[in-house]
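The material for today's practical consists of a large collection of protein records. There is nothing in a record beyond a sequence line and a structure line. Backbone structure tokens are a discrete shorthand for how the chain folds in space. Nothing more is needed to start thinking about how sequence determines fold. As an example, a complete record with its sequence and its structure tokens follows.
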Amino acid sequence: MEIRGYTQSDEVSWIRCRTLSFLNTAYYDNVLNKKEIYKNSAIEIVAVEDGQIVGLLDIEYEQEENTICTKGKGLGGMIWHIAAHPDFQRKRIGTKLLEQAEQISKEKGLQYLEAWTRDDEWVNKWYIKNNFEKVYSYLQVFIEGNEEVQEVINVNVPNLKVVQAFAHYTGDDQSYIKSKFKRAHDCNCYIKKLV
């Protein structure tokens, strides 16, 4: 397996890898049809085996404090994507990508990495195992179905009917929100200090 920088010719394989790796997670519906182009500088690396992208990691990083990241001190890098193709999991691809990205991040003068993930237990354990610290959490709420939508959304536009919505809940009564909506995910922020 080779770890190298992402190139534009990797895009289709990158999208396939990301989509398949997210399929059996709480992010199953977060499907992309093209790879983002970041406004700021980014570390974009891939793991390749037999010409196929089997892992990926993207970090957009700051030149000025708190312009991308929000929970750490100093210059940070936001991990936007980290994934291993399901046919190649359990080969430490994510860890190898992270190790390479940390080395590059330190060379660029970053003090920490920030990552956000939903409530998949194995993903959260992976971050903790790799020395990230959970520093914040809120709920991502998917409001779906007539009952849920009608209870929380008032529409003042004639002939417009909302059928679903996405919301963030940052209050203290998370158990109430989880009991009220069928799909409410913890969204956890992790920080890893690099210095």
The mean pLDDT is 96. Helices lie at 11-22, 93-107, 121-129, 145-152, 174-180. Residues 2-137+188-193 form a domain with the Aminopeptidase fold (CATH 3.40.630.30).
